[in-house]
Amino acid sequence: MEQQKKYSNTQNYHRVIIVGGGFAGLGAAIKLKEAGIEDFILLEKAAEMGGVWRENTYPGCACDVPSALYSYSFEQNPSWSRVFAQQAEIKQYLLDVVDKYKVMPHVRLNHEALDAKWSDAEGCWIINTLHGELRSQFAILACGPMHEPVLPKVKGIEKFKGEIFHSSQWRHDIDLTGKRVAVIGTGASAIQFIPQIQPKVMQLTVFQRTAQWILPKSDMPLLAPVRAMFKLLPLTQQLMRGSVYGIFETINGGIQSPAAMKQFQKLARWHLNFQIKDSVLREKLTPNFIIGCKRILQSNNWYPALAQSNVDVIASGLAEIKGNTLIAANGESCDVDVIILGTGFEIAEPPIAQRVYNRFGQKMSDVWQGSPEGYMGTMVENCPNGFLMFGPNVAVSSSAFIIIEAQLKYIIDALKQAIELGIQTIEPNPEITQKFNTKVQAALQTTVWNKGGCQSYFIDRNGRNSTVWPWTTFKLREKMKYFNLKEYLIDEHVEAKSKDTA
């Protein structure tokens, strides 16, 4: 209680601090307000909210989950223009939700969290920004898994004589028309922007370290009558959302069985055979692992783009750059004017872990040593009152909103109980945490993520799957329906507070 009194009258102390202004952070802000917890702020590093949908503006940037499911369940958008919404529309949806729920008074733009340290002495989180220190009893770290680009370590890359940029930092000032362009990587971003730039460039060379399984994408415009129906009869959109969720849940369940995924793989193989007639190119583009081992991708124009006469696929990773010459690991080479890095983001080791310090002053990343571990993907040992969105082993093959809303239900319930019962700190029980993670890793052993025969970003540098939830999202949502204090270590040294004084 003394710590609470010490800071409660200053502008720099809050009940809760949220870090991150994407969909996870915004959802946290909305749910805090809904719970009557108004003493919070949201720190956003940029000059605008938006998260990954603000950062990624590359040509063709769009969602790979149907819009009906890629939205808050409590704030569905009847106005999506397509089955799979594009970047600008998703970003606008986020900004519209910010306005509707009056979140901006709580937001501190241009406030990057440089580090966050738990202090036992003060009983709070101390978050350092360029604008000074902030303190809070609770911290919700909602920084997201896809915001720090992975940059390849390639010999000679710093001496490249042309232009080079990552797809998430797209250089709109560079006109690619008539240029010789190399794209490094064939992941989720590359399969979207390559078909967009292919008609413009003189020559496009794609460095493909690993071929990907690509499914047809059931994308189409949502015509005005359909949008009107969604608006007038919200139940119809709810039914569409439910059916999409069911499809993704079926795939998610299938991933538990490599044998089941081999059957599902037949659709992807048919798609490849149907769109790629050249046998040499088809062989290059045929993966040697079971579908689902890596992220499942969807596109209708990826294969047709690669089949064009101005495109060359090098089935090898980039090994060295000499001047303007790019040399692949298999010895093939090409001369280019522009390099676009489609090399993805850091997933297995969340970048925020480099900035979070536990009660012993240890960085979360140093404790993890490359293999993130927590309890219910949400809390980490020796980090009291710290909640991690998209934490270890909580990813699913479905919409990110399924994870976001499940975690927020869990976190908000924890905060409400803490405030109402006068609890000062909550932290994972090491014994229960160990049992949980042993069970998670055992369940993952038979899944296609672990047994599918690929190297994916789900597997960390120690060869451990620290990313994926091994069961259904039904089970995820059921486990996070309420926060069981008996599974945690709690310290009750604060007088109980009613909601209206929270």
TrEMBL record:
Transmembrane segment boundaries: none
Keyword Oxidoreductase set for record: yes
Claim: Oxidoreductase is one of the keywords in the record: yes
Gene3D superfamilies: FAD/NAD(P)-binding domain (3.50.50.60)
GO MF assignments: monooxygenase activity
Keywords: Monooxygenase, Oxidoreductase
UniProt-listed PANTHER family: FAD_NAD(P)-BINDING DOMAIN-CONTAINING PROTEIN-RELATED, L-ORNITHINE N(5)-MONOOXYGENASE-RELATED
Protein name as annotated: Cyclohexanone monooxygenase
Native species: Acinetobacter silvestris
